[in-house]
Automatic annotation (TrEMBL):
<protein>
    <recommendedName>
        <fullName>Uridylate kinase</fullName>
        <ecNumber>2.7.4.22</ecNumber>
    </recommendedName>
</protein>
<dbReference type="GO" id="GO:0044210">
    <property type="term" value="P:'de novo' CTP biosynthetic process"/>
</dbReference>
<keyword id="KW-0067">ATP-binding</keyword>
<comment type="pathway">
    <text>Pyrimidine metabolism; CTP biosynthesis via de novo pathway; UDP from UMP (UMPK route): step 1/1.</text>
</comment>
<feature type="binding site">
    <location>
        <position position="173"/>
    </location>
    <ligand>
        <name>ATP</name>
    </ligand>
</feature>
<dbReference type="InterPro" id="IPR015963">
    <property type="entry name" value="Uridylate_kinase_bac"/>
</dbReference>
<keyword id="KW-0665">Pyrimidine biosynthesis</keyword>
<comment type="subunit">
    <text>Homohexamer.</text>
</comment>
<dbReference type="GO" id="GO:0005524">
    <property type="term" value="F:ATP binding"/>
</dbReference>
<feature type="binding site">
    <location>
        <position position="176"/>
    </location>
    <ligand>
        <name>ATP</name>
    </ligand>
</feature>
<dbReference type="GO" id="GO:0005737">
    <property type="term" value="C:cytoplasm"/>
</dbReference>
<dbReference type="InterPro" id="IPR001048">
    <property type="entry name" value="Asp/Glu/Uridylate_kinase"/>
</dbReference>
<keyword id="KW-0547">Nucleotide-binding</keyword>
<dbReference type="InterPro" id="IPR036393">
    <property type="entry name" value="AceGlu_kinase-like_sf"/>
</dbReference>
<keyword id="KW-0963">Cytoplasm</keyword>
<comment type="function">
    <text>Catalyzes the reversible phosphorylation of UMP to UDP.</text>
</comment>
<keyword id="KW-0808">Transferase</keyword>
Length: 243
């Protein structure tokens, strides 16, 4: 029997890398044009599918805590700076989603009441039920955890049905396709095989959270126009990782 070409998801966690918000070759950390495109695609999917969409965004376009710690900065301090970078990205995305006609909120794991709402699980779930988009900022609120781990954690907390990991490649490959032209893409793959093959989909903590809590992960190319909308609406456009 052939695999269905789409899966109907209602509550979704979309993970965006911070680097994705920067235009290639640009010195600007955030491209308003790219942010607007991402927001339009999120808003379009929400309107078409009446979806419940939560977003976690990284901060690597502005700051890389791990690199700063290697250069001598205290790791916890470096990670907190990175969390603040995610807040800037989250505010940019939220504003653009609102401009696209969909109510949106930023909830931060670190309290900063003048610019973002605090993260409260029950409040987040209620806003999602009302069809309002939430952008979760400041990672987990704790140093030493990646924004991938924050995405997995929030997906579990809000009972998301899937984690969509938007990347620069169109799925999971047998090897890095940028370095190995012979690499082949998986349409589907199990958590176990990902671990056995040492495929770097997410960091181990994030991946284990998804695996242990039965959250499938879809890895897809976010740079192709329309792909975020298609992924949110359940179209199989990348690699599905599940049990």
């Amino acid at each position: 029997m052939s695999e269905p070409q789409s899966i109907s998801y209602k509550r979704i966690l979309l993970k965006l890398s911070g680097e994705a918000l920067r235009a290639p070759g640009s010195r600007d950390n955030i491209s308003p044009e790219i942010v607007a495109r991402i927001a339009r695609e999120i808003a379009e999917a929400q309107k078409i599918g009446n979806l419940q969409i939560a977003v976690v965004v990284g901060g690597g376009n502005i700051w890389r805590g791990a690199k700063a710690s290697v250069r001598g900065m205290d790791r916890a301090t470096a990670d907190y700076v990175g969390m603040l970078a995610t807040v800037m990205n989250a505010l940019s995305i939220c504003s653009a989603v609102q401009e696209a006609g969909v109510p949106c909120h930023v909830q931060s794991a670190i309290e900063m009441k003048n610019v973002a709402e605090p993260y409260v699980r029950n409040t987040a779930r209620e806003l999602l039920r009302k069809g309002q988009v939430i952008v979760f900022a400041a990672g987990t609120g704790n140093p030493f955890f990646s924004t991938d781990t924050a995405a997995a954690l929030r997906a579990c907390e809000i009972n998301a049905e899937v984690v969509l990991k938007a990347t620069s490649v169109d799925g999971v490959y047998t090897a890095d396709p940028k370095q190995d032209p012979g690499a082949t893409r998986f349409d589907t793959i199990s958590y176990r095989e990902c671990i056995e093959r040492n495929l770097k989909v997410m960091d181990q903590t994030a991946f284990t959270l998804c695996k242990d809590n039965h959250k499938p992960i879809m890895v897809f190319d976010m740079h192709k126009s329309g792909n975020i909308t298609r992924a949110l609406l359940g179209e199989r456009i990348g690699t599905i990782i599940s049990a």
